[in-house]
Amino acid sequence: MGEKDVHIKVFNDPFYAENGLVISIGSGAACWIIDPGLPPQGEEIIAFIAERKLQPAKLVLTHAHGDHIAGVDMLREAFPDMPMFLAKGEWPLLTDAHENLSAQHGGGTVVKQSQALDLAPGDELALEGTTWKALDVSGHSPAGRAIYCEGLKLAIVGDAVFAGSIGRTDFHHSDGERLIRNIKENILTLPDDTTLIPGHGPATTVGQERATNPYLQG
Fold first, then answer.
1. pTM of the full structure
2. Contact between residue 19 and residue 12 where contact means Cβ atoms under 8 Å apart
3. Looking at residue 55, which CATH number applies to its domain?
4. Which residues of the chain have pLDDT under 50?
C-alpha cells in the first residue's frame, strides 16, 4: 500500500456495522484510534491495544454522528493522555444527542470528555514517520473530514463516500450539493490507486469510485 507497512484493525458494532479503526505503522508502538463506535467496540479496541502493546497517540474523529463517537468516553478514560482531534464545526454534536442523530434512532449518545483539538482542512498529523492531511468532506455532517496519507496511498473517509455510494444527506444538518462537490474536489482528485476506507462497508479505491459510483458521475 506504500513505502511503509500500515496495520489497520477494523472493529464493527452489531447495529450499524460502523468501522472503528486502530492504525499503526510498521513495528512502531504508536497508534491512532479512529471513530470508536457502539459496544462492543470500546472493549475490543482496549483489549487489542493491550494485546499488541500499542500506545494510543491520537483519537481522530472523521465526524461526530452518534455511531462514530459512542466509544469515545470509554477510550479516553482508558487512555487519559490521548488527545482527540475533530473539526471545530462538529464539536456541538458531541454533547447534543439530537444534533448527533442518536436521539432520532432510539439512543442518547453524548460525550462527557468532549475536549477536542480542531482538525481544519490542510492540517497535518504525523504517525511514525507518515504524514496525514485533513481533507474537507463536509456535507453528510457539518464539518466532516477525511485524512489522507500520500505515502501510503490511503485515505480514511468517514461517511463521505462508500463503495458504490455516498453518505446520507437527508439529515437536518446535511448538504447534498456540498458533499458531492467536496468528494469530487478533494477525494476524486487523489491518485486512482488510493485506497479509501469508509465509515461503513468495505474498502474501495478512488479509481473504482470515479468510474462506477452512480452518485459521482457527470
1. 0.96
2. yes
3. 3.60.15.10
4. 1-3
